[in-house]
Amino acid sequence: MEVTDIWRLLPHRYPFLLVDRVLELDDKRIVALKNVSINEPQFTGHFPETPVFPGVMIVEAMAQASGILAFKSRNRTLDDGYIYYLAGTDKTKFKRSVVPGDQLRLEVEIVNLRSHWMKASGKAYVGDQLVCSSLLTCAEQKVAE
Length: 145
Hints:
single chain; about 140 residues; globular
């Protein structure tokens, strides 16, 4: 899945779209990529002398991947009038820093799917190294017409 396909499933755009490509996607699991570039705006202040990709943005990247997964699991797109929000995180752990030039591999798997929310297990890797893990809760909302 290329970025133009991702645009049909996520409302995010530059500079806040954090999923560059989807490698695998089925009704229960997604594997996606986020390329971390020094040109991203957060690196001007986090941190100028030692740039580190913010942990909250790693979690957001996993949340965006889980949003794509939520749309897929319900066979919907943005055009159907729904959106998925990150509603909570649990047991979030960071194992190592992410720096410019790294490529995050985002792996998210559904743990529990209900009518208006989804719990998912998210993991972010750089190469074979686990960078972050979190339980993500995504809430579905009908967009006002």
